[in-house]
Amino acid sequence: MPVYSLNENEISFPLPTLARQDGLLAVGGDLCVERLLLAYSHGIFPWYEPGEDIMWWCPKERFVIFPDEIHISRSMKKFMKKHTLDFRLNRDFADTIHRCRIKREFEEGTWITDEMEEAYCRLHREGYAVSAEVFQDGRLAGGLYGVCLGKCFFGESMFSETENGSKMALIALAQLLSKNRFLLIDCQFHTEHLESMGGRFISWTEYDRLLRLGTEVY
Predict the structure, then answer these.
(1) Beta bridge partners of 85
(2) CB of 57 within 8 A of CB of 19?
(3) Is the pLDDT of residue 135 over 70?
(4) Are 148 and 129 in contact (CB under 8 A)?
């Protein structure tokens, strides 16, 4: 299956079903708001290393968390009961995405380049990118950011400043999304950490059905 080259002057993508087996669909283009919204509304997202061309992915098997299925372990429930927690949306989006970048750079390397930070901050200003943060006993404990279209949330990255910080942020966000009848949290790629919190694979057919249903009015 070929990898398609995108034209910066034309905002379009090949059909998601044309992605390679590893999920890579296209290369090139830009990170303008219009292209990013078109991508996410079709289950496509950018992910690439610094210095590379922009790579656009659309895995055929999707790893998601259904908000009402978020798993909270016994130890996590005990931990949360011991502390005063304050959950906030969009406390400081630019700070949250930068903390995600710094933490990943320090620990394992990151795809969150200057270009990516700027692009998602633009999405935030347009009302589509969201950050979620948790304060533990008055101190910033952790957070995450992602893209919100209709009743679908597309998670991008998380950070922790204290033990369990990112877990608490994800739990609080999932509970809020569940109350607001969101259909899914798209995790993009599988990790054991997200699997332990309720993540599971669904078929492209099921994912595409939920995506169309959830984003039809965004």
Answers:
(1) 136
(2) yes
(3) yes
(4) yes
The pTM of this model reads: 0.94
- Classified as helix, coil or strand, 116 is helix
Bridge partners, residue 147, by sequence = 129, 154
Query: What is the residue-wise DSSP string for 118-159?
Result: HHHHHHHHTT-EEEEEEEETTEEEEEEEEEEETTEEEEEEEE
Strand pairing partners for 205?
Answer: none
Smallest Cα–Cα separation from 24: which of 33, 11, 14? Answer: 14
How far apart are the C-alpha atoms of 60 and 131, rounded to whole Å?
A: 27
In single-letter form, the type of residue at position 84 comes to T
Determine what percent of the chain falls in helix, strand and coil, rounding each to the nearest 5. 40, 25, 35
For residue range 168-217, list pLDDT tens digits in order: 999 999 999 999 999 999 999 899 999 999 999 999 999 999 999 999 86
Distance CA(4)–CA(134), nearest Å, equals 40
55's enclosing H/E stretch is strand 55-57
pLDDT at residue 8, as a whole number:
83
CA distances (Å), origin 131, targets 85, 124, 166, 180: 17, 9, 12, 17
- Asked if the model's pLDDT at residue 80 lies above 80, the reply is yes
Q: Say if residues 199 and 69 touch (Cβ distance below 8 Å).
A: no
- 46 alpha carbon, distance to own chain's centre: 11
What is the C-alpha to C-alpha distance for residues 124 and 142, in angstroms, rounded to an integer? 19
Asked if pLDDT for residue 105 goes beyond 70, the answer is no
